[in-house]
Amino acid sequence: MSADVVTRFAPSPTGYLHIGGARTALFNWLYARGRGGKFLLRIEDTDRARSTPEATAAILQGMAWLGLDHDGDVISQFERADRHAEVANELLAAGKAFKCFATQDEIETFREAARAEGRSTLYRSPWRDADASTHPDAPFVIRVKAPTGGTMVIHDEVQGEVRIAHEQLDDMILLRSDGTPVYMLAVVVDDHDMGVTHVIRGDDHLSNAARQMMIYEAMGWDLPVYAHIPLIHGPDGKKLSKRHGALGAQEYQLMGYPAAGMRNYLARLGWSHGDDEFFTDEQAKEWFDLNGIGKSPARFDTKKLEHVCGQHIASADNAALQQELLEFLAARGDEPLCERKVALLADAMNCLKERAKTFPELLEKAAFVLVERPISPDEKAQKSLDTVSRGILNALTPHLQNASWSRDALEAITAEFAEANDTKFGKMAAPLRAALAGRSVTPSVFDMLLVLGKEESIARISDAATPNG
């Protein structure tokens, strides 16, 4: 496989980008990108009652956040209805489809009799082989002629060989009586016209494959490679749903998970490459293959997600990480940071990103660069600013004013001060944290001093050393 590979993601715009849909998009993206192929996006908006522009926008925004770029324009399935109808009429002209004039009452009567007699309720239309001269002047649907006898075999890259007896397939409707195409027809025509070579989707679509293959075979079109992937389950082993908490990609963005970590974790939900848990996009593109997808449902584990995200934050390029952090703040609706704070964040990034699993955690560590003077210490930090501690800060300040402001110099000065005052640096660290950040849990005191600079650091320490500061 090379540049001939074409995959697609085809969501219905009836809501947000579900986390299961996001993984399906990711798998298609990885497969195409890793082979120099194309990854296409089609919005299946034929259900006009439920499809909304807002949902389409949410899907596009979710994919943009995840970094799943697509090739070409976004395709609207609804706008291709004429092409779908054209194929149905082509099959009708070729004798591979037929006009069915049966009413809903007649179909229901047939099914009730079938149920009473213990027969299959799949509708067998009496119009399948009727002569055109017997056709009434009445509304009709166009049905495809399902194959009779034998077996439909789906060669699936994940599920293996799946066999469905032809007697289990009905003469499926292609065009409704109002001339609108059904979903099953639209999917096949769109996939064929878009040149899709690999259909990678949830295994809830497996039963659709046989019915869609009828259309491929009737038209004489090449079948795509099918790969039906197991759905994602919650920690309790049940299908992921609202009861498990957040479901949409944008919800995870707003909770502050980095996109690279999310991609990494979603890739590992149902696919594996040996024992590798942490990997880059480039490694995922190189490694991803359909034979690495398991048949069993994967379980969504928030703790594992956080662990992977923490690794990605720690290893991220500082500039890229800061940019994503600023985008997170914007998505959350926060006020933009001033240039000075953006610059301080950039200087602080190395001491912020270690052991932070999400952006809110990183921002919590960054409190010392985001806070403004005068600082109001939180309750725990305030306890570190008793009379004795304020005295220590007052006595230390002149030494800091004469320091050259390098890590070695600051470490030496504080060590000498501690020894001269018969104390330990640990006793000095708490009031320094309270003075510099207003918090009791912060990055290293020396990291904060170096990031804030001499003037700002001494000003904050002086504030804290003053009883009314």
Short description, anyone?
The protein is mainly alpha-helical. It is 48% helix and 10% strand. The protein has 19 helices and twelve strands.
Number of helical segments with 4 or more residues: 19
Instruction: Give the strand line-up of the largest sheet.
Output: 1-2-3
Helix content: 40-55%
Unreliable sequence segments? none
Tell how many strands the DSSP assignment holds. Answer: 12
Biggest β-sheet strands, sense, barrel: 3 strands, parallel
Query: What is the overall silhouette?
Result: elongated
- Structural class, by secondary structure, is mainly alpha
Quote the distance from N terminus to C terminus: 69 Å
Tell me the β content: 5-15%
Radius of gyration (CA) equals: 32 Å
Mean pLDDT: 94
Would you spell out the secondary-structure blueprint of this structure?
Blueprint: E1 6-9, H1 19-33, E2 38-43, H2 53-66, E3 75-76, H3 81-93, E4 97-100, H4 104-117, E5 141-144, E6 151-156, E7 160-165, E8 173-175, H5 183-193, E9 198-202, H6 206-219, E10 225-229, E11 232-233, H7 249-254, H8 259-268, H9 281-287, E12 298-299, H10 302-315, H11 318-331, H12 339-352, H13 359-365, H14 367-370, H15 379-382, H16 387-401, H17 407-420, H18 425-437, H19 445-465
Parallel strand pairs: 1-2, 2-3, 9-10, 11-12
Antiparallel strand pairs: 4-5, 5-8, 6-7
Helix pairs in contact: 3-5, 5-6, 8-10, 11-12, 12-19, 16-18, 16-19, 18-19
